[in-house]
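Could you please consider the sequence and fold appended to this message?
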Amino acid sequence: MRATDIRAALRQYFAPPEWELAFEVRNAAGFQGNRSADAIAMNTWPSRGLTLNAIEIKVSKSDLKRELKAPDKAEGVAQFCDFFWLAVPKGLAEGEMIPDAWGILEIDQGRARIKRQATKTPSSEPPRGFWAMFLRSHGRIAHDDSASLLEQQQRKQDAEFRERVKREVERTVNQRTREFADRKREIAIVEHIVGDRLWGGDEALASAIRAVHESGVARTYHSLRHLTESLEKMAGSIHQAIADLHIPDEDTVKADVKKAKELQ
């Protein structure tokens, strides 16, 4: 377990609105600050006594043993606090001679729980230098949280933008694919009707189709089939008119001309 894992668990345990938490808090500002606590947790509820809690984070047996060999070092900050705690991975403090007043917070699976309750000890009023360092460290957490939040929001916006672009590209591709399929079907129909392929670059055939289209025939009569039917009706009417007028056909006229020439 790393110290960052323990700090994350402490932030959940000493969470607002009941608590305000700061890390790496020195006992005074400037050169007068010669001791520091890994964390300071202040209770903000009058009903809970507005207590101050000093916390030392230990992640290894060797680190813990060094702390226990010189417990007086903790007094540099603990003198201003009501309670003093060790925050350690589960089982790390087993078998160790922990001072009676010290409490133990065990961290297991990302959560902190009280292994041993700390004893409240007399404390002196913290000087302004201590509060200055507490506020500075607390403000650093707030700044880091804001930066992290902005980074998360930026990642979320980037992901949403990429998703919108992906959907738009897919929509455009699908639309173009459908349009291409429609054009291909239309060309296949024309090729079937004219009995020739249009993909081979036959400019004469393409020009003929364009000429028919631009002539407006299809638009005027709706289709070439209607035009053919109209021409057939007109031809029938002409043939009937010729019959009614008894106009000889071409073969009869040629025969009469030939006969006249022979008589001459």
